[in-house]
Backbone:
């Protein structure tokens, strides 16, 4: 009787290796990435301009967007650096449920630019932005833990004058308890 | 099994084993070390021209040397050595979250000097960067006097990155000839300024 070849005798083990080795690598990498991404606002939930949405323990809506240049009267009043614009976005927050300690949840707001010729860019809210602004500015620039009834805050972003040229600007709102999900509001 | 085929089979197995060992040796000796895998991605630049990395763009406008400096915030610094003062513009490119000029180093041979934080907000060394908004101002490096005249001073390098540990990220490197600098007795520099120059 003719003896079977080595490959023919061992093909089940070889097939198992061919499947299990890449599967192990893929699962390990996916696990590492998912752990990393779960700790930051990395999964956008897109919201149309003007729409209201519940997220976390509050309801959210963009009430308005204003943009002034450094050369405008409003820009000069805030002493905007040359070549920059100030984008102010009014956000309405409707607290639905308070935290266990009786305070309202805090949030982070970031302005995002996507779809342009270059890589995506983002800017922090002006209360954490390094560019100093003159004047008192808005009363509330981010979420407040003291507010228990509906309120608005005005997020301010100092951006280069070319921000949004050929690209889409959107506002990202995130609360840590909902990571990796965050709201991504389209702007008018 | 054919008796005549056995020697050929043993020979083929030997050749196969030798080939596997040769390939393993090749992979072993050509695979980058852990240090190389994690090293910074060097982006070379020159004085007067912008140089860009993943999340940082810098232009070194000029380099000067002085025995004492006065910063734009009024801070005056003397040193038993020499101040190497760099005038530059820097900005973040994609993200300003926790982005600062974490690495601002003057490297002379094997010796590196971090930008001084003694002038506090009189330099850009401690400032956060903004996405797409340039920040212009000085960096001050306090170095021994013999360094600027030493043999390695002709090939000194300025290094910039957004993190103090620039591994697996961009490291902008701008060469500077320190021996070509005229050491002034004193130097006044402007306060850091945001916006396009």
Residues:
């Amino acid at each position: 009787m003719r003896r079977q070849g080595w490959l023919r005798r061992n093909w089940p083990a070889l097939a198992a290796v061919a499947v299990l080795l890449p599967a192990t690598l893929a699962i390990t990498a996916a696990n590492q990435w998912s752990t990393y991404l779960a700790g930051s606002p990395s999964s956008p939930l897109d919201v149309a301009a003007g729409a209201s949405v519940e997220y976390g323990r509050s309801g959210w809506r963009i009430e308005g967007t204003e943009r002034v240049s450094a050369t405008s009267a409003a820009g000069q009043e805030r002493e905007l650096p040359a070549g920059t614009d100030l984008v102010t976005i009014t956000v309405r927050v409707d607290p639905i449920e308070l935290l266990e300690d009786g305070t309202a949840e805090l949030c982070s707001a970031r302005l995002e630019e996507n779809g342009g010729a270059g890589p995506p860019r983002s800017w922090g809210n002006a209360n954490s932005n390094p560019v100093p602004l003159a004047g008192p500015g808005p009363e509330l620039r981010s979420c407040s833990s003291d507010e228990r009834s509906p309120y608005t805050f005005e997020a301010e972003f100092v951006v280069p004058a070319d921000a949004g040229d050929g690209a889409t600007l959107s506002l990202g709102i995130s609360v840590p308890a909902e990571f990796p999900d965050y709201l991504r509001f389209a702007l008018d | 099994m054919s008796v005549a085929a056995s020697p050929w089979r043993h020979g083929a197995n030997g050749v196969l084993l030798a080939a596997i060992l040769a390939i393993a040796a090749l992979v072993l000796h050509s695979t980058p070390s852990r240090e190389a895998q994690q090293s910074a991605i060097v982006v070379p630049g020159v004085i007067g021209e912008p140089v860009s990395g993943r999340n940082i763009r810098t232009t070194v406008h000029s380099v000067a040397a002085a025995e004492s400096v006065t910063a734009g915030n009024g801070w005056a610094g003397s040193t038993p050595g020499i101040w190497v003062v760099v005038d530059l513009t820097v900005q973040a490119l994609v993200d300003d979250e926790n982005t600062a000029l974490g690495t601002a180093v003057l490297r002379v041979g094997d010796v590196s000097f971090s930008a001084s934080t003694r002038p506090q907000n009189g330099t850009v060394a401690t400032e956060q960067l903004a996405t797409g908004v340039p920040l212009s101002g000085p960096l001050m490096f306090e170095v021994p006097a013999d360094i600027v005249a030493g043999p390695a001073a002709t090939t000194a390098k300025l290094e910039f990155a957004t993190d103090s540990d620039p591994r697996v990220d961009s490291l902008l490197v701008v060469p500077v000839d320190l021996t070509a600098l005229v050491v002034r007795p004193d130097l006044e520099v402007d306060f850091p300024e945001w916006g396009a120059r």
